[in-house]
Design a protein that fits this description.
about 325 residues, alpha/beta, six-stranded antiparallel beta barrel
Length: about 325
Amino acid sequence: MGRAQPLVMEHVRTLEEAGAVASGKGPVFLAVGMFDGVHLGHQSVLDAARRLSRLRGGMVAVLTFWPHPSRLFTPEDPKLMILNPYQKRFKLATNGVDLMIELNFDADFASLDAEAFIPMLKKHLPELKQIFVGENFRYGAQRAGDITSLIEQASAEQIQVFSGNRVRAGGEAISSTRIRSQISRGDIAAANQLLGYTYVCGGEVIPGKQNGRKIGFPTMNLVWNPDLKPRYGVYQVEVEKSGADADGARMPSVANYGLRPTVGDLKEPLLEVHVLDRDPHVTPGDPLRVYWHDFIRPEMKFDGFDSLKSQIAQDVNSARKQFGLDE
């Protein structure tokens, strides 16, 4: 498989910059929201903007924010992000977004009256033709604005509003909150269904103590400490190289994420990946992507390396069965 072509998307941090990028490029179709996870619900809103852009020309833009508003309003208990800023930009680009406007959500922006929102957008994006939001969208100081007021205010500027119905799965609305809960308890398979893609992380291989190799299960070690941590435990994963020599091949693997309580030498979680049936040919410093498929078991403390080795063998067999490698 050949290397994927790079995605092209403009990324700016102010509306002034957005106006300069959008100038002369036709009508602007703007999706607004946090888009943490860029899950199936978000994708339905982006799909609507992309379809209309294809019909009428112009560009698809996203107005989003960093950090999450909870960092300002409830700093003692902020929302933990599913995606880091880089991952979020990548997922928006893969969903056909031409321009990402990533505003700093600070006290000044939080105090903006709802009535000032549309004029602010129109001032900087004079070719704005339609705004795309979810049905639970709120905006303005004290979250005073809703879909009804957005439609009224936008129509005064000849701007249409698309309010997408919430996408449902399993009888419940798909939401970032629901996905965060699934990831934090290790239910990666369920989270993947709502995300609409495989949960993925990346990092560089770091030198290890070779404990895995000593007991017959060599691992590649990655320091990975995301905002939202999956449950510590063992997972069925795939890994691929992501550097200059990447060939797009995903290698079936089993991974442990956690503090290695049997060894007892970690203060920050480590991701250890054992590739099944092949030598991954990696060295420290090599960049990797890890695709998470399913939870196998929680992290455990064993009374020694013999019992740890026995359990790892069971974990490997479980992963092999899930991948269908022994069929």
